[in-house]
Amino acid sequence: MYVTRRATFSASHRLYNAELSEEENFRLFDKCASPNGHGHNYVLEVTVAGEVGEETGYVLDLKELKKILAREILDKVDHKHLNHDVDFLRGVIPTAENIAMAFWNVLAPAIPRGRLHSIRLQETENNAVEYRGEQK
Ligand code: NI
């Protein structure tokens, strides 16, 4: 069984690789490399896979997943600048792909029942990534 919790947050980012020249950055990332960054309204969907508990009828209590998401992710990224304000994104180019992988690494060990199945991150109405990482 797969259960999904959806959450939204707003954050700014700049796509920029400090190893590359200014020109190369603009060639790669275009206006996303502009110095002061820009913002998105992100939609995050976290899916947990597991057996349905006989006593609860749940894979895991989604109220509990909501709290974990708030504590581990949303409190740290909502209304923040992803390049500067988020400890677990330090040194990461905050593309949707890299953000999804970083969220996975934070959340996978924090899921109390079942196992993390996927992280879907929608950056714009038309662009989304989905990550199914390794279980450690
Ligand atoms: Ni962007």
Description:
By secondary structure, this protein is an alpha+beta fold. Helix content is 26%, strand content 28%. A five-stranded mixed β-sheet has the order 3-1-2-4-5. The radius of gyration is 16 Å and the shape is elongated. The structure holds nickel (II) ion. The site of nickel (II) ion has 4 residues, from strand 2.
Short description:
This protein is α+β, with helices and mostly antiparallel strands. The chain is built from 3 helices and 5 strands, in the order βαβαβαββ. The longest helix has 16 residues, at 62-77.
Q: What is the topology?
A:
Layout (H helix, E strand, L loop, with lengths): L1 E12 L8 H8 L8 E12 L12 H16 L2 E2 L14 H12 L7 E8 L5 E4 L5
Parallel strand pairs: 1-3
Antiparallel strand pairs: 1-2, 2-4, 4-5
This protein binds nickel (II) ion.
CATH class reads Alpha Beta
Element string (H = helix, E = strand): EHEHEHEE
Q: Averaging pLDDT over every residue, what do you get?
A: 96
Characterize the largest beta sheet: strand count, sense, and whether it forms a barrel.
Answer: 5 strands, mixed
- The helix tally amounts to 3
Widest sheet: strand ordering: 3-1-2-4-5
Give me the CATH architecture, please. Answer: 2-Layer Sandwich
Q: Give the bound compounds.
A: nickel (II) ion
In the CATH hierarchy, the third-tier topology is known as Tetrahydropterin Synthase, Chain A
Fraction of residues in H or I helices? 25-40%
Query: What sort of overall outline do the alpha carbons produce when their principal axes are compared?
Result: elongated
Contiguous runs where pLDDT drops below 50 for at least 5 residues: none
> How many domains?
1
SS content category: alpha+beta
Compute the separation of the termini in Å.
Answer: 20 Å
Radius of gyration: 16 Å
Strand segment count:
5
Strand content: 25-35%
